TrEMBL record:
GO terms for cellular component: Golgi membrane. Belongs to the glycosyltransferase 29 family. This is Alpha-2,8-sialyltransferase 8E. The keyword Lipid metabolism applies. Pathway: Protein modification; protein glycosylation. GO terms for molecular function: alpha-N-acetylneuraminate alpha-2,8-sialyltransferase activity. It catalyses: a ganglioside GQ1c (d18:1(4E)) + CMP-N-acetyl-beta-neuraminate = a ganglioside GP1c (d18:1(4E)) + CMP + H(+). The gene is ST8SIA5.
Length: 385
């Protein structure tokens, strides 16, 4: 066999490299299309479940706002794939997808966020409060529906008198997910510039990450499984847990204490720990009915999972509490919009439990809302301030 010349070798290497790149792009586009087709197919079903969450007028408005009235008028999967293909072919960095999704300032379009929010009612039911959960209430769990927690005097005193936030209280909010798409994004300053910042599940915000993820935190959620696995249910590791929370300064701590019966004791223990260390941080608990409402709402839009993600819950609440909602670190694919491989989280590459969340479907719905100007999904490099 005749040996390849150096030029021939270089040409072969280039051909192989281009072929691999094309395969990666093709795989990513197929994944997006599959998620898109699945989601749009579900847009026309389960509207009755949505109307269980608010008045018929509010939910009817929501269906009209978010559901494509005519699939021939709004073929988002094709539109999305076409935009991605253009970006890869032209070499553009699809910074925040702004050109692709036509963010609009039209108040008529943006009012969709108000319609969607009223179906879940975060200003009244995001947290358990003394107003929405009076003393003596037999509180039903979100998942363990046969379980009931009797609100006694000790637990009742832990609740705030009323919700600390009201509708559209904040001008600009950032909901910060933990996706690897945040790595090298330089979005820290933009996140810090928000009036209110939500973070999920005790993410690291040390100096190593601040350029990309910022430090400002107003609410940080804590999954009880983190407390169980990393801090031994707070039976011994109380001070290490307290020190972790100090990183977020005066941020409120939010837990799903009434998601299931296993979560309650360890979630309540968080309040005791912070009180023992005389911490000024408030501790709040998701109201289980709010979690039910949010799950039903997103189910009606095709998000079918054992449990919706904390990020989706916070983003839904932000649509009610904020005039502008910006999402950072929300992505569910192994490549970014530019076709580059990314880690699952910005701080590690630990994969989630298979089938527990429906992350691709959640992201697709976020992009749908982005396309209608209801919120802003950041997927590129930031150039804030």
């Amino acid at each position: 066999m005749r040996a390849l010349s150096p030029a021939g070798t270089d040409g072969m290497r280039g051909w192989v490299q281009n072929s691999r790149e094309h395969c990666r792009v093709l795989w990513f586009m197929i994944a997006i299309l599959m998620v898109g087709v699945s989601t749009i197919a579900s847009f026309n079903c389960v509207t009755k479940a949505m109307c269980h969450l608010g008045t018929a007028t509010e939910c009817g408005s929501l269906v009209g706002r978010l559901n494509p009235a005519n699939e021939h008028e709004y073929q988002l999967p094709h539109f999305l794939a076409r935009g991605l293909q253009f970006g890869w072919q032209s070499g553009d960095q699809l910074s925040n997808w702004t050109g692709l999704f036509n963010v609009t300032d039209d108040p008529a379009v943006q009012s969709g966020s108000d319609s969607s929010s009223r179906c879940c009612n975060a200003p009244a039911f995001l947290f358990t409060t003394q107003k929405n959960t009076p003393l003596g209430t037999k509180l039903k769990y979100e998942v363990d529906t046969s379980g009931i927690y009797h609100i006694n005097q000790e637990i009742f005193r832990m609740f705030p008198k009323d919700m600390p936030y009201y509708r559209s209280q904040f001008k600009k909010c950032a909901v910060v997910g933990n996706g690897g798409i945040l790595k090298n994004s330089r979005c820290g300053r933009e996140i810090n510039s928000a009036d209110f910042v939500f973070r999920c599940n005790l993410p690291p915000i040390s100096e190593k990450y601040t350029m990309d993820v910022g430090v400002k935190t107003d609410v940080v959620t804590v999954n009880p499984s983190i407390i169980t696995e990393r801090f031994h249910k707070l039976e011994k590791w109380r001070r290490p847990f307290y020190r972790v929370l100090q990183v977020y300064e005066n941020a409120s701590v939010l837990l799903p204490a009434f998601y299931n019966t296993r979560n309650t004791d360890v979630s309540i223990r968080v309040k005791y720990v912070l009180d023992d260390f005389e911490s000024p941080q408030a501790v709040y608990y998701f109201h289980p009915q709010y979690l039910v409402n949010v799950s039903r709402y997103w189910l009606s839009l095709g998000v079918r999972a054992k449990r919706i993600s904390t990020g989706l819950i916070l983003a839904t609440a932000a649509l009610e509490l904020c005039e502008e909602v910006h999402l950072f670190g929300f992505w569910a694919f192994p490549m970014n919009p530019s076709g580059l491989y990314i880690t699952h989280h910005y701080y590690d590459n630990v994969k989630p439990r298979p089938g527990f969340h429906a992350m691709p479907s959640e992201i697709f719905n976020f992009l749908h809302l982005h396309s209608r100007g209801i919120l802003r999904v950041h997927t590129g490099t930031c150039s804030c301030c």
